[in-house]
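Researcher: Structure prediction, please.
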Amino acid sequence: MEFEHTIRPIAYIQNDFKEKFGIPRQSGLADTTAKIVFEPEYRSREAVRGMEMYSHFWLLWQFSESVRGSWSPTVRPPRLGGNIRMGVFATRSPFRPNSIGLSCVRLDHIDLDGEDAPALYVSGADLMDGTPIYDVKPYLPYVDSHPEALGGFTESTKEYRLEVIVPEHLRAMISETTYRELCEVLEQDPRPSYQKDPARTYGMRYGKWEVKFRVEKNSLFVCEIRSTE
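Model: Predicted structure follows.
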């Protein structure tokens, strides 16, 4: 039985991830902040009534930068080096039959008085700036948390972290909040797993900053931070 249904975004996210490179591979890995702005027709105080009683929410959203006209039954997870194929439904790859993402975020506060109120301020989102959001649902610990659940092939990579080294003169250029968030992003190792050249310099955008770095063994060295404004 064939059935098609069109869904429209109810909101868009605003944050410092201006490009795909550097975004954490899962929600909650970096404590970065973001703002969720509802489309005008959904900006209702009634619609957010009771949200303040929850600490976390699920976001249903679109991999808007990864939409393709076709799909593959297997993908190559970056954390497995990009050389091992797994079934697409055994991964959280953006290259899916339907480009739908699922993320759990922490609700920091609800703005009820701003120009685009009500707006949600959240932490831990792994979405690119401008990503369309289709729905927001409460995270319910008594049914959504399963500590005994198996993590599959991700068990071997979940503790992977890099030591981030930022020279003092570069650290002084940015705020403490930006420094903390940037370090949490960089320690996840933004590089594709198959790229291991210690002499190669990589670049990524974070907010108004262009950040360049290189990686040697388990250490990431920030080489340059400059403003793009």
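Model: The chain has two domains: 11-64+99-144, 156-227.
Researcher: Thanks, that helps.
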